[in-house]
Each structure stands twice: as C-alpha cells, then as structure tokens.
Write a structure and sequence with these properties.
The structure holds two protein chains of two kinds. Chain A is mostly helical. Chain A has 14 helices and no strands. Helices cover 41% and strands 23% of the residues of chain B. Classes of the chains: A mainly alpha, B alpha/beta.
Chain lengths: 366, 259
C-alpha cells in the first residue's frame, strides 16, 4: 500500500517578529547607526515643531483689518481672512463670484456622478468634455443670458490657477498621445513633424513660450486680428505640457512587448483599433506615475503666468503683500499658497495611486 | 473581387493551393533569411515545420499573414496576393488565426474580452453573439470556467489554450502556430497539444512550427524541414522520420530524437 503524503501544518511566526515592539526594533533601532539616526531625527523634530505650533497656532491672530491688529507675535492669519475672496477669485467682481462657485459645484457633481452605477458613463464623459466647458465659459465670461460680461483680465486667484491647470491637463493629454504615436509612426512626414515639435518645445523654457504667447504673437498678427491673452497663454501651456506628455507616453509605448502589437495585427485590427483597444490602455497604465508627474508639473508651472501680467493664486498673494495695510505678511501669504498647492498636488498623487491599484490585473481581483 | 471569388471557388474544389509560396526571398539587412521558398499547401492540410533555430521556419510562417514582409517572389493566401496593399493584408488576417510562442494574450482584458475583441471590432459581430461564440470555443478548450479572469491569473498551458480559442473566434480558414509549446512547462504541453490534435481532426488547415515530433507523427500530412533559410525536405511523416533523404535531415532527427 502506498504511503499517503500529508503536508505538515504551518506554524505561527516567532513572537519577536510581529507587533509594535518588533516594528520598532526592525525599523528604528536595528543597528547603532539606526539608533543614532532615530534619536537625532527626534531631536530635530523637537527643535522645529514646537516653535512652528507656537507661531502658527498659539500666538496667531485670526481676525483683524490690518497688520496692526496682529500684536500677539505669531502668524497674522487675519491677512488671509481679509483677502480670502481675492485669493480665490482674483479681481473678478465680488457680486458675480457666485458664477464661479456654481461652475465649480457643477463640475464636482458631474465628476461625482461617475460613482452612480445607473448613469451612462459615455454620455457623462461627453457632457463633461463637451457640454460643461460651454456652460462654464458662458458663466465665467458672461455677456449673454443676462449675465454681466467679465473681461478675462479680471480672472485670477485660485480660480485662474485651477482654470489653467484643468484646461492644460485635459487638452495636453490627448495631444501628447497623438504626438507620441506620431513619433513612433512609420510615416516619415508625421514622424518628423512630431519629432521637430517635441524637440523644439522641450528645448525652450516655459517662460519663453509665455512671452511669445503674450508679447510676440500680437506683434506678428495684423491689426484688428487679435485674440485673447488668456487663450494664447493657455495654448502655450498646453503645447508645452503636451511635448513632455508625449515623451512620457512614448516610454510606455516602448515598454509594451512586440508580441502585443503582433497579436493585434494578426487579428486584423486596424492601426487605430489596435492602438486604442490594445496598446494604449496598457501603455498609459504603465506610465501613470509619469503622467501625473507631468500634470503636477503643469499645475505648478502655471504660476509663471504672473510674469506676463496675470494674477493667479501666487500672483494675487504677492500683489496683496504690497498692500500698505498688510506689509510684513509675506510669510503667511506664501504659507497659505504653499498649503493650497500642496493639498491639490498631494490629492492628485494619491488619486493616481488609487487608479493604479484599480487597474492592476496581474493578481486576483475577485 | 470577382477574381478572388473565382480563386476561392477553385480553392474549394481543391484545384488551387490555399497557401502558395513562389520563389520567396527575404533579407534582414544583409542576412538572407529565406532563400527561394517554393511551397504550396492545400485546403485542410496539416503542415508541421521543423528545423534548427535560426533556420527561418518562424519567419516563413509569419510571412503567411504578413507579420513579416518578403522582398522577392509571391505569396498567395486564400486567393489573395500578399503585397503592400493594406486592404489585402486586413482581408487575409481576418481569415488566418495565429498562436504565438509567448501566448500574447492582452493582459488588461479578461479572457472573454480577449476572445470577443476581434469578432466585435473586425467582424462587426454584435457583442452578445460574440460572447456566445467565445464561450463555445472556451468550452472546446475546456477553460470556460475561467472566462472572467485575467490572463495573468492563468497558468501557461491555460493561457495558450485561451490563445488558441482566441484564434478560432475569428472563424479562420487557416491556423498558424509559431512554436506554441516552447514556452510551456513540460506538464502543460500535453493539454495544449490535445487541443491542437482535436483541431487537426476537424479538418482545419494548419501550419505549425514545433519541435514536438510526436505531434508531427500523429497529425501532420507533411513535415517540412528547414535549414539556413531553405526548405531541405518536405515529406509525409512516415517517410520523413523513417527514411530521411538528406544527411542534414538525418543529422537533425538524430539530435532531437535520441536523447
């Protein structure tokens, strides 16, 4: 009779390798150098954190109408409070800012609707990409439907920052995909156009492009033919970011094994079918970190519009710092700007990680 | 198109080969990879192509659906000449299924989506119908219960069976196999070969590059031996294995059979 094979049962791990004490020993106190580094870091934190809390919270002044009200010696958050509206909307007429709020709420609601199962995702995407911008434009610019016209030179603050960031991201992504595909194409004309475009844009600083957009282009256009500065700057930012996006996406395309292209070809899929259905979904998933990197870069680079006389979040804060009533509140202003940028960029980064996890198909999902 | 219809009619009557290589030559740069290939395959024939690595057997097979371009000579598949005409290539690829050494399933799609992709987008079949057909072929390769999983969750043998089912979903007239078992663990080779034998018994026209000589003996109508870009010998399996004509063939057979 054959002897039956029975696997021996699994044993629990030794006590020393699990639990809080084990974690401390492994991560903080595993060697003399580690012990030193741990205590050194704790000491540095001890030096930094208490004064910051004292300045930012304990001794801070939260309300008041000028710098003179800030007598406690800590942060003068009253400055942020007094200028908050301006930081959000720039020079947009205060009695019209409800239009921006409505547009923002509408966008959040529409994006939130993706979570509802019964909503048709295709129609929703189309309405966000096509219908929403029209509504938003009517609301922002006014001049129709009884809304008072607001010139784009008055747009500013976080509103302008978000506008530049969102439009830049939404427009540069598809353009970047097309440029990346073009650069890898077999068609010599398409390929060289894409290569020249990408290499030219990448070889030039963003400031140069913004100057070109705001100063040079109007010089070359004939009299009477002139289009909006905001639009010109937006196009500049979009093209700039698209060139970087294209190179990130090209990296993803190169990482897809040749066999995937061949399998798609062998099935008789056309070029665009195989790109859209087979190659791009995989390539884009691979380079999500790089894409988000470019998005975050674009979002922060949009502060450069200050140079060409537009007041985005950072620009409007700098402007407010020069107010005679609030002289000496530079640190508070920059801290506030820094916090807003950090919150938005950190949010983007976390969101991208969620997407990455969602798209992971290598392991068991169900 | 009428030309093609006539050709197809001849083909059905067995008067014309379904795949016809005439003086096919191909170079990779300076390297002459296919030298004067003349070969024809009839409808329903099962061809096994073997030979040492670098002999051009994969390249020749991949010329049939123009994954590789030949530079001289002509290849006529299913009544259509293979040339730069994109329409011709697309038409042929609809009729030729292909199975690769490394499976090449699409990792971002479920098994079912892998199978229905081409029927829906190339054959313009309604989704429901495509799914029913896909499930039918998955049952044939005995893997229907995995339809909702992703390729990364399946074993190599299972993935290759899915790849075969995916090829069949195009309802092809010809199936090409490019070393389908070379990347598999030994214990998984049999399950893939079983599916291929079953397919052969149903009368599918097959061109199979493989080193599985057992498979060649049982199902092949003809075995083709290639070396250095040339077809050295092509014969029905009994003759090929028991009475090889060329010393190069004898050499090769002694190397792979005696170990």
């Amino acid at each position: 009779m054959a002897i039956e094979f029975k696997p021996s049962p699994s044993l629990p791990p030794p006590v020393k390798s699990v639990g809080a004490v084990a974690w401390l020993r492994q991560n903080l106190l595993s060697s003399p150098l580690n012990v030193f580094l741990t205590f050194f870091s704790v000491y540095i934190l001890y030096l930094l954190i208490p004064p910051m809390i004292e300045w930012g919270l304990v001794n801070a002044t939260w309300s008041g109408s000028s710098k003179a009200a800030c007598t406690a010696g800590g942060a003068c958050w009253a400055f942020i409070g007094a200028r908050f509206e301006q930081f959000m909307y720039g020079l947009y007429p205060p009695e019209e800012t409800w239009r921006i709020n409505i547009a923002a709420i509408l966008l959040i609601v529409m994006i939130g609707a993706f979570a509802i199962k019964t909503v048709n995702k295709l129609y929703l995407s189309i309405s966000i990409i096509v219908v929403y911008p029209i509504i938003a434009y009517i609301l922002f610019a006014g001049g129709s439907f009884g809304l008072e016209a607001v010139d784009t030179s008055l747009w500013g603050g976080l509103f302008l920052t978000m506008l530049l960031g969102i439009i830049g991201i939404v427009a540069s992504f598809p353009l970047g995909v097309l440029l990346a595909l073009g650069r890898r194409s077999n068609m010599p004309v398409a390929k060289s156009v894409c290569v020249v475009f990408i290499e030219t844009i990448r070889a030039v600083p963003l400031i140069t492009i913004l100057f070109m957009a705001s100063v040079m282009i109007p010089l070359f256009l004939p009299d009477g033919l002139n289009f909006n500065k905001l639009l010109r700057v937006l196009i500049g930012i979009t093209l700039f970011s698209a060139a970087y996006m294209a190179e990130v996406i090209r990296g993803g395309l190169q990482a897809i094994p040749k066999g995937q292209y061949e399998a798609a070809d062998a099935m008789g899929l056309t070029y665009w079918q195989s790109m859209i259905l087979v190659i791009l979904p995989q390539a884009l998933k691979l380079v999500i970190p790089g894409i988000v990197n470019t998005f975050i870069g674009l979002f922060k680079d949009s502060t450069l519009v200050y140079i060409v006389g537009m007041f985005d979040l950072l620009g409007i804060i700098q402007l407010a710092n020069h107010d005679a009533n609030w002289l000496g509140t530079t640190i508070e202003g920059y801290a506030f700007a820094g916090f807003i940028y950090w919150a938005i960029c950190f949010g983007m980064s976390r969101y991208s990680m969620t997407i990455e996890r969602k798209l992971e198909t290598g392991h068991k999902r169900n | 198109m009428t030309n093609r219809n006539m050709a197809l009619a001849q083909l059905e009557r067995g008067e014309q080969a379904i795949i016809e290589f005439t003086d096919v030559n191909k170079w990779y740069g300076d390297f002459h990879v296919l030298k004067n290939i003349n070969f024809s395959i009839k409808k329903g024939e099962r061809i096994v192509v073997c030979g040492p690595s670098g002999s051009g057997k994969s390249t020749m097979t991949r010329c049939i659906n123009r994954l590789e371009e030949h530079q001289k000579g002509s290849i006529i598949v299913d009544g259509i000449e293979m040339n730069d005409n994109l329409k011709n290539i697309e038409a042929i690829r609809k009729d030729v299924g292909m199975v690769f050494q490394h499976f090449n399933l699409f990792p971002h799609l479920t098994i079912l989506e892998n199978l229905t992709l081409a029927p829906i987008w190339v054959r313009k079949m309604p989704k429901k119908e495509a799914e029913e057909m896909a499930m039918h072929y998955l049952e044939r390769v005995k893997i229907a219960n995995q339809a909702m999983k992703f390729p990364g969750q399946l074993s190599g043998g299972q993935q290759q069976r899915v790849a075969i089912a995916r090829g069949l979903c195009m309802q092809p007239r010809i199936m090409l196999f490019d070393e389908p078992t070379s990347a598999l663990d030994p214990e998984m080779i049999k399950e893939v070969l079983d599916v291929m034998v079953q397919l052969a018994e149903e009368g599918m026209t097959m061109v199979c590059v493989t080193h599985e000589m057992g498979f060649a003996k049982t199902v092949a109508d003809r075995v083709v031996f290639m070396d250095a870009g040339e077809i050295v010998e092509a014969n029905e399996p009994n003759e090929f294995f028991n009475n090889p004509q060329h010393d190069r063939t004898q050499n090769f057979l002694s190397q792979i059979l005696n170990h």
